[in-house]
Amino acid sequence: MSHNDLTVLPPHHFLPYWRDPPPVEIPDYARLTCAVNDGVCSIVYAVSYHGAQKILAALSVNPTGIAEKIDIGAQFDVSLGRMCGSGFLQCFASFSSLTGGYIPAGPSSKGSDIHGGNEDIHPISSHGVMYSTMLNINRILNGEGTITSNWDDAPAPVISPANISVTGGEMRMLREDGIHTLAVVHS
Fold first, then answer.
1. Which of 140, 149, 171, 180 fits a 20 to 30 Å CA distance from 160?
2. Which secondary structure element, helix H or strand E, spans residue 171, and what is its range?
3. How far is residue 72's CA from residue 144's CA, in Å, rounded to a whole number?
4. Global pTM?
5. Would you say the C-alpha torsion 111, 151, 21, 173 has a positive or negative sign?
6. Distance CA 148, CA 169 (A)
7. CB 116, CB 34: distance < 8 Å
């Protein structure tokens, strides 16, 4: 768990699909990284070389026994979640997320076709992150040294990414009798 991370969203800005809070209480502006056993609708993945080999094998060659544990005909994110849940892969995630979504201005179908031909017009937006790369892209490309938050109530509405540093943290383990601190790294 890392503390005092100004890039972490306050809980009232969490997306509705984060329907369950973490199993432990975490302070505001702290980021929790943990093992996961399922997950869908992720838009970004970091995969090791060995993990990529296993994913490709499971989805194309189908090693013995894996077909019974995952639905290799399902959408990629569903299959990947089942690979995590079955123990075929070791999977980790952060809470809150390190990445978010971007919706370009215009009809809803411009950003995604998952809900059919909805042509409602909406403004440009970004969700799930404190500082959106896409909403700040002009500032970044123009060489400006600061970016702005997506949210008016951000603790730091304008920041310099060069000055953000999150160092230190704690390693904890959740057991039936509570949380146990295993290690602490001070910044």
1. 171
2. strand 169-175
3. 46
4. 0.72
5. positive
6. 26
7. no
Summarised one tens digit per residue, pLDDT across range 130-179 is 999 999 999 999 999 999 999 889 989 999 988 887 677 887 777 778 77
Domain residues of the chain, as ranges?
Answer: 37-88
How many other CB atoms are there within 10 angstroms of residue 134's CB atom? Answer: 16
Read off the tokens for 133: 């790369």
User: How many whole angstroms separate alpha carbon 120 and alpha carbon 112?
Assistant: 12
Query: What is the length of the chain?
Result: 187
- Show the tokens assigned to 68: 């019974």
Tell me if 1 sits within 8 A of 170, measured CB to CB. yes
Structure tokens at 23: 């199993």
